[in-house]
Amino acid sequence: MPINIPDGLPAASVLEQENIFVMTEQRAIHQDIRPLKIVIMNLMPTKVETEIQLMRLLSNTPLQIDITLLVPATHESKNISKEYLERFYKTFDDIRDTNIDGIIFTGAPLEDIEFEEVDYWPELCEIMEWSKTHAASSMYICWASLAGLYYHYGIKKKALPRKKAGIFEYRNLAESDPLLRGIDQVFRMPQSRYATVTADDVSKCPRLNIVAADDHRDPGIIISDDNMVFITGHMEYDLFTLANEYQRDVDRGIEPAFPLNYYPGDDPRFDPILSWRSYSTLVFSNWLNYYVYQLTPYDLSSMKK
Fold it and tell me: Looking at the chain, which terminus has fewer C-beta neighbours within 10 angstroms, N or C?
């Protein structure tokens, strides 16, 4: 089934080249079907790239998906034009009085800043609180997962001694959970972060369950008992995203952490190997099916507010 996106969004041409069925707003309004309404709170500076990455994963399902892109109204984006945001994005005021099926909060390069020092933190907190009663499920990615765990459960992030960058293996600790249904006992996930939450801190909260962790007990995926999913990595990343981040930091004159298990033989002279896409696709499909579609009411107006 198609993924519905705003007319003229650059992601459309990229996804169509990949034979992904994309439906524009004009065509979608003539369909007599109730699509899943998914909001993407895009906090990444690379907005277009993130749009494509997430929409690619959301499209691999028989469900029809209606995408709304959201940005904080209290933050001025420096990496994309105001015209682009005005054309393709909404702010919280535009959707606060509506119910949705699911919301995704993306990562952001803010791990070295205290949450309360982020300029849009009060607005983000309001949206996270709103999502508890206006969305069937929420997914938090990378920095957003740390922010969500802190806001909802008071779990503080811990600075890592060095950036965790590369492709890491995580053990499936909950094969019976619908989110990890069909996932191997060990799967790969891209990581690109300077902070984490500890397994000990998460385990102190009875409402949280670590369903994936690496050999050092670093949590990879955490699920709450009220249908919130926290993914500490970037399962949505493309083949060259980590390479681009690494080269960006090299060009800035800093000594970045080398992305491990990414290049053949850890040699950047060779192209990296894509080894996580199937896992990522299945996790996103499972989230849409079991955590959103199976739980959301057909009539969104009946959702508890």
Answer: C
